């Protein structure tokens, strides 16, 4: 999605009709940055609000927490005051023109209001002209909602259209918010389409198997019945695993809430801080131990030959000793002896007469050599065992290293656990009764989490066993189908559906894990480019969790999220956003706008400079709503040097509640920008 | 995202040699991406699978 134009009429501070044309990459000059400059109160957030209102129908933004919708006036007050009578309706409207997937869209939403404050929704219209020039008009709000969500999912709109000061909230999102965000990201990356495809083919497979079970007879029928029953068990287990996972996440959130409440007790604050650090470290050590175990498991197949390493060694040494002595291979060739016998002539030129003792000796010698095949075999075996020996040495070396590492992790885990236990009891015996009660509550939640985790592990194990049994049954069904000639159109349909389920499931698992790795990789590349020097010294890596929430590790690999600054959180969120957009668009440049309200206010000069240097090159469109306290000549000059600055607007006050949008030329000398923010500070 | 769909399609093609199975899987992804609910996608796939098996019979 690329924003092309915004037309406002009597919306918030903007009386009359006013418009902004946004710069975007495919402009002939390649400039993709739009700066909208205005001092506080001139309507910058009104512009942001207009886009959210038009596309999603939202009156309130996330920063309006605690504000009632009726308290927020979207219709320009001056226009209302100037209306002829109390009953004359004034129309406010916002129209957004945008480009998406080669098509052009125009969305217009209006409101009608009168002087006494009553406001009613007006029209909502979406017009779409596809790449072939065909235009479709829509007025059904549900359809329009669906289309807009396809362009930019509502759940992740705040990733791309956001208030710079609040963006860091994304790193603090609650469980419910994270779920929504994860849903939105899956939508953006088309992972949800694959998920739905798997679900739909599973439904189809189930239905066809049930139909087949009704009709099939004999052993084939029995197996089909078993498959249907097992399918049911598997889907029940999957649902149960999912709800256990949700229960676990909710318990984790509950625990966090208790921790926040406990922070209020100053006398135990240092203990709490230490416990939080130790718990984070414990989590990280447990993750590392888990990774080591997985590594060891993946090597088990290759290391099973270590079990016979003694025998290998023994046989190798036996053959090797013979080889060293020159017994194998024999130094005398069999064809040479055959020639001596047929020529009746010894090597020493003496005649060999049949049936004489020397002749018999040479025959004996030849017979002994007839074991040449055995020699060759022994030599092959010697070479093979030699390879196995050196391979065994490698495996043993790796296994030993892994075991040592695992042992060190488990001992660290043990000592961390015992320290945490000690801290728990110290916190629990706090003189404050209410703090002690909270600690008991926390311990109960932790026990619950352990129980859930144990159940989840059991069920996952059961599920894996059932799935493998299911695969065997499917094979058995195939062979019985042939044996009993039970092949029918229905069975063919069921087989086809089953194959499609497996295919989609495999691709889904591969795709979703690859995409997470890719996002983490890209996010880290951006993070490194955007962080200032100090940040780079302290922070090592962003970790993208399975629900797309973020963690950051310090240079020792320990979780550090709780301790980073608001500016660093902002940079972290922007890195994830840029990575998401880049991965979603597959191509190098993301076709999603970055629309940022007050983006620089919390950032150091280094961070601001890095953003200005990196983002215009990495995204198709960057729209900045800036105030004089965050945008000085220093930022403007750097932006100008980038060659990407395409449009510049100033929001000017024309009196109370009335601002106009003025298009300015670049350079920006008409404005009295501060020399630099640091000098001003 | 058109690019993402191409990416998924290439992955499916790389993992399957059965033409009909691939057609069914691709159709499932296409219908799912169109915004239809899962149950409706399954219903439409039933018709697809029936047609694929029939066409195969005719070809035999």
Write down the overall mean pLDDT of chain A: 84
Give the total of beta strands of chain B.
0
Chain-averaged pLDDT of chain B: 86
Helical proportion of chain A, percent range: 55-70%
How much of the sequence lies in strands of chain B comes to under 5%
List unreliable stretches of 5+ residues of chain A.
none
Number of helices of chain B: 3
Number of helices of chain A: 19
Briefly note the structural class of the backbone of chain A: alpha/beta
Name the chain pair with the biggest interface and residue counts per chain: A-B, 36 and 37 residues
Content of β-strand of chain A: 15-25%
* Measured distance between first and last alpha carbons of chain A: 38 Å
Overall shape of chain B: flat
In short:
By secondary structure, chain A is an alpha/beta fold. Chain A contains 19 helices and 14 strands. In chain A, 58% of the residues lie in helices and 15% in strands.
Supply database-style keywords:
heterodimer; A: 681 residues; alpha/beta; 14 strands; elongated; B: 60 residues; mainly alpha; 85% helix; flat
Please, could you describe this protein's structure?
The complex is a heterodimer of chains A (681) and B (60). With 681 residues, chain A is of the alpha/beta class. Chain A has 19 helices and 14 strands. Chain A has helices at 44-56, 77-82, 141-151, 157-160, 175-188, 191-215, 218-262, 269-303, 309-325, 334-343, 357-369, 372-428, 433-483, 489-530, 533-538, 566-584, 605-618, 633-641, 677-680; strands spanning 2-11, 14-21, 33-37, 90-100, 103-113, 119-129, 135-138, 161-163, 539-544, 550-554, 590-597, 619-626, 645-653, 659-664. Chain A has a 6-stranded antiparallel β-sheet. Chain B has helices at residues 2-15, 19-33, 38-59. Chain B is flat, with a radius of gyration of 13 Å. In chain B, α1 runs antiparallel to α2 and α2 (19-33) packs antiparallel against α3 (38-59). Chain B has 3 helices and no strands. Chain B is mainly alpha-helical and 60 residues long. The A-B interface holds A 101, 146, 150, 188-190, 192-197, 199-201, 203-204, 207-208, 489, 492-493, 496-497, 499-500, 503-504, 506-507, 510-511, 584-587 and B 1-8, 11-12, 15-16, 18, 20-22, 24-25, 28-29, 31-33, 35, 38-39, 41-42, 45-46, 49-50, 52-54, 56-57.
């Amino acid at each position: 999605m690329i924003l092309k134009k915004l037309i406002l009429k009597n919306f918030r501070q903007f009386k009359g009709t006013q418009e902004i044309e946004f710069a975007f990459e495919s402009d002939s000059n390649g400039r993709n940055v739009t700066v909208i400059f205005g001092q506080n109160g001139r309507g910058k957030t009104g512009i942001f609000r207009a886009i959210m209102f038009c596309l999603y129908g939202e009156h309130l933004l996330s920063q309006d927490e605690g504000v009632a919708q009726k308290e927020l006036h979207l219709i320009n007050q001056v226009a209302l005051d100037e209306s002829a009578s109390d009953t004359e309706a004034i129309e406010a409207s916002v129209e957004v023109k945008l480009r998406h997937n080669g098509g052009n869209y125009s969305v217009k939403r209006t409101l009608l209001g009168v002087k006494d404050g009553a406001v009613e929704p007006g029209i909502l219209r979406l017009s779409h002209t596809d790449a072939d020039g065909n235009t479709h008009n829509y007025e059904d709000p549900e359809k329009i909602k669906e289309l807009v969500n396809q362009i930019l999912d509502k759940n992740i709109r705040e990733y791309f259209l956001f208030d710079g000061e609040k963006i860091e909230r994304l790193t603090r999102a609650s469980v419910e918010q994270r779920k929504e965000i994860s849903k939105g990201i899956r939508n953006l990356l088309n992972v949800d389409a694959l998920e739905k495809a798997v679900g739909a083919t599973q439904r189809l497979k189930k239905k066809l198997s049930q139909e087949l079970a009704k009709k099939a007879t004999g052993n084939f029928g029995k197996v089909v019945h078993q498959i249907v029953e097992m399918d049911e068990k598997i889907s029940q287990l999957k649902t149960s695993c999912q709800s256990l996972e949700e229960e676990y996440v909710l318990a984790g959130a509950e625990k966090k809430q208790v921790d926040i409440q406990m922070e209020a007790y100053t006398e135990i604050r240092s203990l709490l801080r230490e416990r939080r650090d130790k718990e984070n470290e414990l989590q990280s050590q447990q993750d590392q131990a888990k990774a080591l175990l997985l590594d060891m498991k993946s090597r088990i197949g290759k290391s099973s030959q270590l079990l016979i390493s003694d025998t290998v060694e023994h046989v190798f040494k036996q053959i090797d000793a013979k080889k060293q002595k020159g017994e194998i291979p024999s130094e005398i060739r069999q064809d040479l002896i055959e020639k001596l016998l047929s020529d009746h002539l010894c090597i020493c030129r003496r005649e060999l007469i049949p049936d004489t003792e020397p002749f018999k000796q040479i025959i004996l010698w030849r017979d002994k050599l007839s074991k040449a095949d055995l020699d060759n075999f022994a030599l092959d075996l010697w070479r093979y065992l030699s390879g196995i020996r050196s391979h065994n040495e490698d495996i043993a070396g790796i296994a030993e290293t892994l075991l040592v590492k695992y042992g060190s992790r488990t001992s660290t885990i043990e000592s961390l656990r015992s320290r945490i236990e000690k801290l728990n009891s110290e916190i629990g015996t706090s003189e404050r009764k209410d703090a002690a009660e909270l600690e008991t509550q926390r311990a109960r939640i932790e026990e619950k989490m352990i129980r859930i985790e144990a159940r989840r592990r059991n069920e996952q194990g059961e599920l894996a066993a059932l799935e493998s049994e299911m695969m065997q049954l499917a094979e058995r069904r195939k062979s019985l189908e042939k044996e009993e000639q039970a092949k029918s159109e229905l069975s063919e349909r069921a087989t086809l559906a089953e194959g499609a389920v497996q295919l989609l499931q495999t691709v889904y698992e591969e795709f979703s894990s690859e995409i997470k790795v890719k996002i983490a990789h890209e996010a880290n590349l951006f993070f490194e480019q955007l962080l200032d020097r100090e940040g780079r010294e302290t922070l090592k890596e962003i970790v993208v969790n399975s629900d797309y929430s973020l963690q950051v590790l310090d240079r020792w690999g320990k979780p550090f999220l709780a301790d980073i600054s608001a500016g660093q959180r902002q940079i972290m969120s922007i890195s994830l956003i840029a990575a998401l957009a880049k991965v979603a668009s597959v191509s190098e440049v993301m076709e999603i706008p970055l629309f940022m309200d007050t983006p620089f206010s919390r950032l150091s000069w280094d961070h601001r400079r890095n953003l200005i240097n990196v983002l215009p090159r990495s995204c198709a469109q960057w729209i900045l709503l800036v105030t004089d306290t965050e945008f000085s000549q220093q930022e403007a000059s750097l932006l100008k040097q980038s060659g990407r600055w395409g449009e510049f607007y100033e929001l000017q006050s024309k009196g109370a509640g009335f601002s106009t949008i003025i298009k300015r030329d670049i350079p920006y000398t008409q404005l009295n920008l501060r020399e630099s923010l640091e000098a001003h500070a | 995202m058109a690019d993402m769909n191409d990416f998924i399609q290439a992955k499916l093609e790389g993992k399957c040699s059965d033409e009909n199975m691939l057609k069914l899987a691709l159709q499932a992804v296409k219908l799912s991406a169109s915004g239809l609910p899962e149950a409706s996608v399954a219903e439409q796939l039933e018709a697809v699978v029936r047609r694929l098996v029939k066409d195969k019979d005719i070809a035999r």
